[in-house]
Design brief:
The complex is a heterodimer of chains A (123) and B (372).
Chain A (H helix, E strand, L loop, with lengths): L3 H8 L25 E3 L9 H5 L5 E5 L11 E6 L8 H5 L5 E3 L14 E2 L6
Antiparallel strand pairs in A: 1-4, 2-3, 3-5
Chain B lengths: L2 E2 L7 E6 L10 E7 L2 E8 L7 H6 L3 H8 L7 H16 L5 H29 L3 H22 L9 E2 L2 E2 L7 H20 L3 H7 L7 H7 L3 H5 L7 H4 L20 H25 L20 E10 L2 E10 L6 E5 L2 H12 L3 E2 L3 H7 L4 H5 L1
Antiparallel strand pairs in B: 1-2, 2-3, 3-4, 4-10, 5-6, 7-8, 8-9
Helix pairs in contact in B: 2-3, 3-4, 4-5, 4-11, 4-13, 5-6, 6-11
Classes of the chains: A alpha+beta (123), B alpha+beta (372).
Bound molecules: iron/sulfur cluster (2 copies).
């Protein structure tokens, strides 16, 4: 009986493990990794293209809180990460590059409200 | 749930294999048993139905590209490709050469990682945890490269999009892919190593004859494991497959082991395809000129049936455009449907219960693709 597989398995005892000791070690996240959104309200022209292309209707165009409405009078995208599938179509379509996906993927939270990214937070 | 049939023999009862069985994955089979033997099996799909065909009628092609990932969780890039080809035809897009090469390289990488999962699932189903762990570990090396290129480990989010691919390969991606090949080869050899337990579980189990395979509509490695040489990449080439040299592995036995061996031999052919494509990778654009981020079928009219060779066999998209923004009708033909319902039911007649997982996993199933 040939036992090639057993020898191979025992060889593996002496090799380096494939996994890393998270959180002390982390694997490198490539630049293209589609994670949390980063929104720059100052360059946004409120065209609403991102909200139109979003396949999951995760983007809603909303008004900013009343105290900031003078500075930002139009409507701006609010992203609901709970609905988002991280397709980056919003990033591709934005004419001003105001909405971008970063590499951050640590989203675990106990509060559902944390999953909503407001265009701007009131002070 | 166990039902005991009191009128007949005391050992007669029926029960469910799955869907909560760790090795069954969103699919269940009702088995009618007499003692240890399975007399009859009835497939019970539907746990993963998401209604893609209807959803696609409400979305524009670029959004559907993102959705097409999820038809089969284990081979998303290949489903991306079939969808993109259907839209390319209806919109009359000229796909640049470089994009075609990138599409093929990614589709083949996706095939290899999917075959690794096959080995992992067969190991898991028959209690060989080491095989499962090693295969999933080696698959992860491929996922790292897919993450580098598409931005997602499992889901590329429509990376292969209508009109080409969404982004060009990042710097050094070619080298990263070439560095992967020795690892893939190691894993492939490992999977084919003499393993007495593995042979005992899969040899001469779940034998499907050539005639039955054709009658039931088997495709892909299942059909090639029964001695029929059929491969869409060869018979009806798409993208650049007609320019590449590769073989179509075939085995005559038709049992679970033959099907699996065909799959592992295909990995070698996929590696050949990847090496050739990287060698010849031309420079240039990766998207058809003037491709807008929003693609709509407003000027497109007609219908198309496009088929590709996925990891599990022939998969196809039928799409009708009638000049509206969205497709009028989409029909998806997945390879797992025939494997999982008529063929599985046929193979699971009069077998030992212990062979059910071995036969089940040897069908290279994807419940996501059965239900859609
Ligand atoms: S990444 Fe995709 S799903 Fe998420 S907000 Fe942007 S368009 Fe919508
Ligand atoms: S983020 Fe970009 S696409 Fe969205 S409204 Fe602002 S400018 Fe338009």
């Amino acid at each position: 009986m040939k036992l090639g597989i057993v020898i191979e398995i025992f060889k593996n005892v002496f090799t380096k493990p494939m996994t890393v000791l998270f959180p002390f070690e982390r694997i490198e996240i490539p630049e293209r990794n589609r994670g949390e959104h980063e929104f720059n309200i100052d360059t946004c022209i409120s065209c609403g293209a991102c909200a139109r292309i979003c396949p999951n209707l995760a983007i809603k165009m909303i008004e900013v809180p009343s105290e900031l409405r003078e500075k930002y009078p139009k409507t701006y995208p609010q992203v609901d990460l709970g609905k988002c599938c991280f397709c980056a179509l919003c990033e591709d379509i934005c004419p001003k590059g105001s909405i971008k996906l970063t590499t951050n993927f640590y989203f675990a939270t106990f509060d559902k409200d944390d999953t909503i990214l407001y265009p701007v937070k009131a002070e | 749930m166990t039902e005991i049939n009191e009128q007949e023999i005391a050992g007669d009862f029926s029960m469910y294999f799955g869907p909560a069985h760790p090795g069954s994955g969103n699919f269940s089979i009702k088995v009618e048993m007499r003692g240890e033997r399975v007399l009859k099996a009835t497939a019970d799909p539907g746990y993963l139905h998401r209604g893609f065909e209807k959803l696609m009628e409400y979305r524009e092609p670029m959004q559907n590209a993102v959705l097409s990932d999820r038809v089969c969780v284990l081979e998303p890039l290949q489903w991306n490709l079939v969808h993109a080809e259907a839209v390319d035809y209806l919109m009359d897009y000229e796909v640049p050469e470089r994009a075609k090469y990138i599409r093929v390289i990614l589709a083949e990488l996706s095939r290899i990682q999917s075959h690794f999962i096959w080995y992992a699932a067969m190991s898991l189903g028959t209690g060989f945890m080491t095989g499962f762990n090693i295969a999933i570990g080696y698959r992860d090396y491929i996922l790292d490269v897919l993450n580098l290129i598409t931005g997602g480990r499992v889901y590329p989010a429509g990376y292969i999009c209508p009109g080409g691919v969404r982004k060009d390969l990042p710097e050094k991606a070619e080298n990263k892919i070439l560095e992967l090949l020795p690892k893939i080869e190691y894993m492939r050899k490992f999977a084919l190593k003499q393993n007495p337990a593995w042979l005992a579980r899969f040899k001469e189990i779940g034998t499907l004859t050539k005639e039955e395979a054709i009658k039931f509509g088997a495709v892909g490695p299942i059909l090639r494991g029964c001695g029929v040489e059929s491969d869409v990449r060869r018979d009806d080439p798409y993208e650049i497959y007609d320019e590449l040299e590769f073989d179509v592995p075939v085995m005559d036995e038709g049992d679970a082991y033959a099907r699996f061996t065909v799959g592992m031999q295909e990995i070698e052919e996929s590696m050949k395809i990847i090496t050739q494509s990287i060698d010849r990778l031309p420079k240039g654009e990766v998207k058809t000129p003037n491709l807008k981020p929003i693609v709509q079928f407003q000027k497109a009219e007609g219908e198309i049936y496009i088929r590709n060779e996925l990891s599990r066999g022939e998969g196809a998209f039928y799409m009708v455009a009638t000049g509206q923004k969205t497709p009028y009708r989409v029909k998806i033909r997945g390879p797992s449907f025939t494997h999982m319902i008529p063929i599985l039911e046929h193979l699971l007649t009069d077998v030992a219960y212990a062979d059910v997982p071995a036969i089940y996993w040897s069908m290279y199933q994807c419940p996501a693709d059965v239900d859609r």
